[in-house]
Design brief:
By secondary structure, this protein is an alpha/beta fold. Helix content is about 40%, strand content about 20%.
């Protein structure tokens, strides 16, 4: 089974407003790209050509939206077949999805929380194993942001650890989600982070968010990364060593030159912690 250890350095989420600039020249500061495969499967024409031209120039990671790992419905095997063909066709080096659910008798188009229970650990881990067997590769699951706790029979940390250990999969560490959840659910972000299984980190996300209230943050990916989140990334490197890290920006997308300043900041932090950005 293929490993997910296939990216290095600093990456960027590939978004359509940047296709023109990237098609002209890919900046050296970008070591890898990430896309949601659902947004690109079967896309042809001008957009499809631009995607293919860019994707062959850097390692490509895929972070999905529709696996529905925590949902009650059977996994969509037709979609998994299409997904496998896409991952193979584009030499995708790492793929994963969210520790959440998004469908119950039909797609809900929201990433909804899973109850933190032993039963849910077994349910999700079994589905991850099925996905890995179908795709012939390990996948990386992301620690999600959530705004409602359905159950806390086990802690969020024990839930994440339990899933990745029982499924024998990797972790896509979302630094911003750790910060968002720590504020929204009143726990210590550094203590939580240090308890994660660092040996399973495939790569990480860093992103911005919105403050809807002093004690409520919404994970929007629509603003610049704030200093406390940058500090949490540095702390993660101190805990686990430098791992590949990419910038997410999904709404209010500025010109490429502006987002590159944050990609370059990732590289700078990586170098400061003893590893070149392009290992």
């Amino acid at each position: 089974m293929l490993s997910t250890r296939g990216v290095s350095g600093a990456g960027l989420g590939l978004r359509r407003p940047h296709l023109g600039s990237l098609r002209d020249a890919i900046p050296e500061s970008i070591d890898f790209f990430e896309v949601a495969p659902e947004n690109w499967i079967d896309v042809g024409g001008r957009l499809g050509r631009a995607f293919r031209e860019i994707a062959v120039q850097r390692p490509l990671a895929c972070h999905g939206l529709l696996l529905n790992l925590g949902g009650p419905d059977p996994l969509d095997t037709v979609f998994l077949g299409r997904l496998k063909a896409f991952l193979d066709a584009h030499d995708v080096v790492v793929y994963g999805d969210h520790l959440s659910f998004c469908a119950a008798h039909g797609h809900l188009y929201e990433l909804l929380p899973i109850p933190f229970t032993e039963e849910a650990i077994r349910h999700v881990a079994a589905r991850i194993r099925q996905v890995q067997e179908t795709l012939g590769r390990r996948i990386a699951v992301e620690n999600p942001s959530y705004y409602l706790s359905l159950s806390a029979a086990v802690s969020e940390l024990d839930f994440i650890r339990g899933v990745v250990e029982e499924a024998d999969c990797d972790l896509l560490l979302d630094i911003n989600n750790v910060y968002v959840n720590a504020v929204n659910h009143a726990y210590d972000a550094r203590e939580f982070l240090a308890g994660l299984p660092g040996e399973r980190i495939a790569y990480a996300h860093i992103a911005g968010h919105a403050h809807d209230a002093p004690d409520l943050i919404v994970d929007t990916h629509g603003a610049a990364v704030i200093d406390p989140v940058w500090s949490l990334l540095e702390y993660a490197y101190q805990c686990f060593g430098v791992f590949p890290t990419m910038l997410e920006r999904d709404v209010n997308i500025p010109p490429l030159a502006e987002v590159l300043t944050e990609v370059e900041r990732i590289r700078s932090i990586q170098r400061a912690h003893g590893e070149s950005a392009a290992a």
